[in-house]
Specification:
Radius of gyration: 31 Å
Oligomer: single chain
Number of helices: 15
Largest sheet: 5 strands, antiparallel
Order of helices and strands: HHEEHEEEHHHHEHEEHEHEHHHHHEE
Shape: elongated
C-alpha cells in the first residue's frame, strides 16, 4: 500500500491552523480500503505515520491484527474504551502503555485501536483518522471476530444486569434506556399463565421499562414496588386476563450498587414461585416476611433446616396442614376447626400428636419462630420445584397449596380423616 505516511513522522506545524495530516491520512486510508486494501495495510500505514506499533483488538480486547505481535487488553478495559469512559491511555496485558481509540460508529463496533506509547495529541489524531477505514473493512469482510453488531438491545441490558455483568458500556446502555443505576433499584420478574401468548408478548413491548422475555416469563428493573404493581396491572389489562392470577409479579431487594442486581433478580425469581404457589398476584422483598432471611440460601440448606425442625411430621400431610393453621390462628381451636373443616376434638388430637412428635409446643415463642421459618423453607422449595416445571403446563388452582413431602392437600377444603383420628370429619 503506497502512502505518504513516511513524510508525517515529524512534528506538527506551529500556529493556529489545524494540522492537515490526519484528514489527509483518513482520506488516503479510506480510498485504499475501498480499493481493496486490508486492515493489516491500515495498521502498517499508521505505523509509518506515527512511528509506533499498532494493534487492532476485538470488542473483548483480543488482538485481531498487530504490527508487533503484541497482546491486547482485558475485556473490561476494552468495554470501557468503547463506552467512552476509559482511556485514552490504557495498559496492555504485556505491560505496555498505549493510546486507545474506539473503532465504532453508532451501534456498529469493529473493536479498539491501540497505538503503543504515551498519549500525544498528534498520535490520537492520526489514530482517529483510521477509524473510518477500519469500519469499512469490518463491514465489507463481515468478519465475525470484529464483532460488528448492535452493541446492546434492551433485552441484552436486562440479561447483563441479571447476570451481574455491569460493565461501563452496560451502564451507558442502561442509562440510555431509562434505567438509573445511580439509585437503588430492584430486579423484577413477571409471569403469564393465560392462553393469549401473542397478546402477552405485544403487551411487554408497550411497557416503558426495558424487558427481557423468555416465553411466559419476563424480567425488568423497577425503582420501587408501586411501579411493579402498575406494570403488572397494565399487563393484566392488555392480556384481557379472565383471572386476576394470570399475571403474577415479584421483585427482589434494592441493592446499593448495580452489581447487586444479580442477587435481586435471584430473590425475585424465588418470590415469584412463592407467589404462584400461594396465589398472590404481587410479592415483593419488603413484604415477604420471614422469607427474606431464606431467599439466598441454597436448596440443600433449606432442606436441612426443614428436616431438622419438621422431620417427624413431614410425611404426615394432615399434621402439616394442622400445624400451619394452628400457627396462623395462634392456637385458636375453633378457628382451625372452621378453616380445616374438622371437629374441635380432631384439632386437639392432631395438635397433641404434633407436640409429641416435635417435642415442643409450637406456640412457644422460640419454637414458633423456628417452625415458621421451616414452613417457609418448604414453601420456597416447592416454589423452586414449580420454576423447573414446563411453563406450558396447565396452571394450578387459585387457592394456596399446603405442601409436605407426602401427598399434597389443600388447606381450604375438607380433609380426609386419618386412621388415627378418633372423631369423624365434621361437615
Amino acid at each position: 500500500m503506497v502512502t505518504t505516511a513516511e513524510a508525517w513522522t515529524g512534528p506538527a506545524r506551529e500556529g493556529p491552523d489545524p494540522d492537515p495530516r490526519p484528514a489527509l491520512l483518513e482520506r488516503e486510508l479510506t480510498e485504499a480500503v475501498l480499493a481493496g486494501a486490508a486492515r493489516a495495510d491500515v495498521l502498517h500505514a499508521l505505523l509509518r505515520a506515527t512511528g509506533r506499533q499498532v494493534r487492532l483488538l476485538a470488542a473483548d480486547g483480543v488482538p485481531l491484527a498487530t504490527t508487533d505481535g503484541g497482546t491486547g487488553v482485558s475485556a473490561a478495559v476494552a468495554d470501557g474504551v468503547l463506552a467512552g469512559v476509559t482511556g485514552p491511555v490504557v495498559d496492555t496485558l504485556d505491560g505496555l502503555r498505549a493510546t486507545a481509540q474506539p473503532v465504532r460508529a453508532g451501534t456498529t463496533v469493529a473493536g479498539v485501536l491501540l497505538i503503543v506509547g504515551p498519549a500525544e495529541p498528534r498520535v490520537q489524531a492520526l489514530a482517529g483518522a483510521a477509524v473510518t477505514a477500519l469500519l469499512i473493512d469490518a463491514v465489507r469482510t463481515g468478519d465475525d471476530s470484529a464483532e460488528v453488531s448492535a452493541r446492546y438491545t434492551a433485552a441484552d441490558v436486562v440479561a447483563a444486569l441479571r447476570s451481574g455483568t455491569v460493565s461501563p458500556s452496560v451502564r451507558a446502555a442502561a442509562e440510555a434506556l431509562g434505567i438509573d443505576l445511580r439509585r437503588p433499584s430492584a430486579g423484577a420478574v413477571l409471569h403469564y399463565s393465560g392462553s393469549r401468548l401473542r397478546a402477552w408478548s405485544t403487551a411487554l413491548t408497550w411497557l416503558e421499562y426495558p424487558v427481557r422475555q423468555e416465553g411466559r416469563t419476563a424480567w425488568t428493573v423497577v425503582p420501587d414496588d408501586a411501579v411493579l404493581t402498575r406494570l403488572r396491572n397494565r399487563l393484566r389489562l392488555m392480556t384481557d386476563g379472565e383471572s386476576a392470577g394470570q399475571v403474577v409479579a415479584a421483585s427482589g431487594s434494592r441493592p446499593e450498587s448495580p452489581e447487586g442486581l444479580a442477587r435481586s433478580f435471584t430473590e425475585a425469581e424465588r418470590l415469584l414461585g412463592l407467589a404462584r404457589t400461594q396465589g398472590v398476584p404481587v410479592l415483593t422483598f419488603d413484604r415477604c416476611g420471614v422469607a427474606q432471611v431464606l431467599l439466598t440460601l441454597p436448596r440443600t440448606r433449606l432442606e436441612a433446616y426443614a428436616e431438622a425442625h419438621l422431620g417427624p411430621i413431614l410425611s404426615r400431610p394432615e399434621l402439616m396442614a394442622t400445624l400451619r393453621a394452628w400457627l396462623a390462628e395462634r392456637g385458636s381451636r375453633q378457628s382451625v376447626s372452621e378453616q380445616l373443616h374438622l371437629h374441635r376434638n380432631s384439632v386437639g388430637y392432631r395438635v397433641r400428636q404434633i407436640k409429641n412428635l416435635l417435642g415442643t409446643d409450637p406456640l412457644l415463642p422460640a419454637a414458633s419462630a423456628e417452625l415458621h421459618l421451616a414452613l417457609t423453607a418448604l414453601d420456597l422449595l416447592a416454589a423452586d420445584d414449580d420454576r423447573l416445571r414446563d411453563d406450558d403446563q396447565p396452571s394450578r388452582g387459585d387457592g394456596p397449596q399446603v405442601r409436605g413431602d407426602g401427598p399434597q392437600i389443600r388447606g381450604d377444603g375438607p380433609q380426609v380423616r386419618g386412621d388415627d383420628e378418633p372423631v369423624s370429619v365434621h361437615r
